[in-house]
Structure formats: C-alpha cells, structure tokens
Amino acid sequence: MSIPNWLTQDYIEEVLKLYHHDVTVRITNFNIKAAFGKGENYGGVMTRIKVSYDRLNNTVKEEKNLLVKNSYEDDEFAKEKMKPYDIFNREMSIYDQVLPKLNQLMAEIGDKDQLFANALYTDYKRQALIFENLSQQGFVMANRIERLDMEHVQLILRKLAKMHATSAVLNERENGSLEKYDRGFFNKYTDTYKTFFVNNFLSCARYLQRQPNSKYYAEKIFAMEPYYMDIGLRCFMPTKGHVNVLAHGDVWTNNVMFKYDPETKKPIDVILIDFQYSFWGSPALDLHHFFNTSLKEPLRRNHQDALFQYYHNWFTETLGKLKYSSNPIPSLKAFHQHVEQKRFFALHSGVVIQPVMLNQDPTDADYQALMDVDERAMNFKARLYNNNPIIQENLKFLLPYFDHKGLLEVDQ
Asked: Where is the CHK kinase-like domain (predicted)?
C-alpha cells in the first residue's frame, strides 16, 4: 500500500509539538514504511514511522515508534464504498470521545486493566489516527493463519467483557450517547457490503456444488441469497430488554495485540485495536465473530459453551460493580438464549468472513476485489474457497452444524 504524500517529517514534527506541548521539538531521524503487505489489511492505509528527535529543555534524545492509520484517500472506489459506513470518522470519534470515558469507569472500580491503545493525535481533516506503536511495549500480533488457543482467547474475552460492560454503563449514565453508533456491517442506512457478503456466500455455494455430498448445502445457500442482508440487519438491531453495548464490531486475530512472557512464551496481556466498525448492539455478535474467525478448530468445535461462560462471568461482574440497572443483568441461561438468537452472525463470520481472513494467496487481495463484481473480483472470491484446504476442511464441520441449528433455513 502506498504511503500518503502528506505524511512527511514536517507533519510528524508538528504532531509531536502538539503532543509534548513543546514548540522546540526537532526531528533528527525519520524512517517510514508501509505496515502491512497485500491481503493482510482491508480497513485503510497503515504506516509505521520511527523518529528520533530533540527538545530544547530535554538533554536526552527521544525516540518514538508510531503507527499511522488513515483512509483510502487516493482510492476513489474504496472511498465511495466505505462512505455510507463512515468508518474513519467513527473510529476517530470513539478514540476521542468514548474510550477515555471507558477508562475512567475502569478506574472508578479500581480496575487497572488497559483495554485499548491510546491515540497520540486525531486528524479529522485527513481522517487519520496516530498511535504510539505498541510493538515498542512488547506487543505483537499473533499468527492469523495458526489462530488462537485457549490462553490467548481468554485474555481477549476478559478485556472484551470489560469494554462491553463499561460501554453499557456509560450509555446508561449519558442518556443513550452511544446509540448513535448504528452503522455496523449490517445497518439500516446501506447494504453496500452486499457485493462482498452475498457474493462470497454464493462463491461458497458454487464450490460446494462440485463436492461429493455437498449439493444439499449449496442449494440451501442459493435459496438464502435474496434474504441474506435482511437477516443480517435483523441480527444487528439492538435487542430491547437486553443489555446492549458498544460492540467492537470486528474482533479477530489481526485486531488485537499480545504481550508474551519472555521466559515461558505464554501470552500475559492483550490490547484491543481497530474500532472502525464499532456499533451499538448485542455483545453476542462480537463473540460469534471472534469465535468463528480466530479460534483454533478444537476450541471452535468443542469449547464455545465454556468460553461464553467465561465471558459472561467477567461481563456480569463488571456490570454489577458499576451498578448497571437499565436492564436485568443476564443470568448464564438468559445469556445463552440470547447467543442463540444472534447465531446467524456465527454463520456469516465462519462461512463468509473467515475465508478472507485465512487467505494466503496475495493475488488480487485488495479492497476492490472484496467489494466489486467484475471478473477479477469474482475470481478472487472463488479462490477463497477453491484454493484453501483449511477453509474446505472447516466447511465440512460448519455447514452440518449450522444446518442442525436451522440457520440455513429461510423464514419468510
């Protein structure tokens, strides 16, 4: 991905002056490079910057490793497709106006867990966020292809539960302030992502048509096509009488960073990143998405009930400590029932989204291939199923499972 023309040494120098409240900042060394390769990120332009700089009243040379995230400013196709979702303004608003308040609620109950990275600077004009690179604090990304084991997953669930619970309390105390975030992947304003979601779903069906004993599932998928976006929209609507939250919206392996114990190599901490698709709705949607994109197969197949319970413990405990009262804090039984009501998003995440996330072929792996319907884009979508043995093996488990749940049936 190309580095934005405006992202220069002079620009970063001005940012550091504002950050330090010190006009004497002078950069002495500046190194810049793209943060991701092709096919590893579809949500914007990510750039890594390493700077050394002096300040007049500080005799020690300072260094910072920064991560800059900005919109697809030179890609008219991506800009047009993303416009209805307003993802960049939303993420900047969340970092500016929401996450600091969630941190305050954590401090209110004496909880010192760091849930999020802190933004050094928010540039609304250029739709850019600048962070201190978490890698300098020892945080790294896990391998998206290998996926996550129990220790990694529990760390994420603890942080996610606390984010969800504090957001519910913030919304309660601020008279619905978070309910304006109503543009998740499925929303009432646009179905722009239909070309991505439905055509991936149909590419899966065409793959299944050619497999022994799989035509039954292909036919069911084809029958769902006209109703797919409406089913997703109903799933994303906040549920009255339940605890709704500011959901992260896109929890998966590449949207979290882990810190490891240097001796045992075990994960000891995690930070949630990337809030472009955050929305007001059910916490179960984050769990379905996470479980069906990022878990190792033994966990996804055999341990989801235990993981829902683990999340529920942290979620309800935090709600209780903060004296949440707008809706009943759900019992484990009630929470499991709600999880079932939202399980369509598990189908969507496992069958439509995970093939993109586990794709290892960089050919045409870009935002336009996801969102377009020309020959190049449709060939890319077909390869997600035709050329990936991991996805092919997963479908052998997922499709019978979702069929037994009734999720391949259409309620007209």
From this structure: 129-321
